[in-house]
Design goal:
- By secondary structure, the protein is mainly β.
- It contains two helices and seven strands, in the order E-E-E-E-H-H-E-E-E.
- The strands form two sheets. Strands 1-2-3-4 form a four-stranded antiparallel sheet.
- The protein is elongated.
- The termini are far apart.
Amino acid sequence: MSNYNYTKETFGKCPRCNSNIYEGGKSFYCSNPDCGFTLWKESFYLKRMKKTINGDMARELLEKGQTYVDDLWSEKKQKTFAAYLNMTDDGERVNFSLSFPE
């Protein structure tokens, strides 16, 4: 038996149940198996803008409900742009929207 104690890195608290959020292969997930909160690294909404959620973004989304992203892709204009990525959770699914700095 190994003496090595593996401690998972906590990325924040779950907005639904206040349990710890951990990182998995494809998502940031709630440590409470009864909760079901998942913040997917790849989503249809973000894929269009050629963006995936990384650890720093997940921390800010969980703490503040938004994170500033300076390299989102606009297919229409064929260039990158900056915006705040806002996260809302309706208790069943996570939704994203953008807002722009003043």
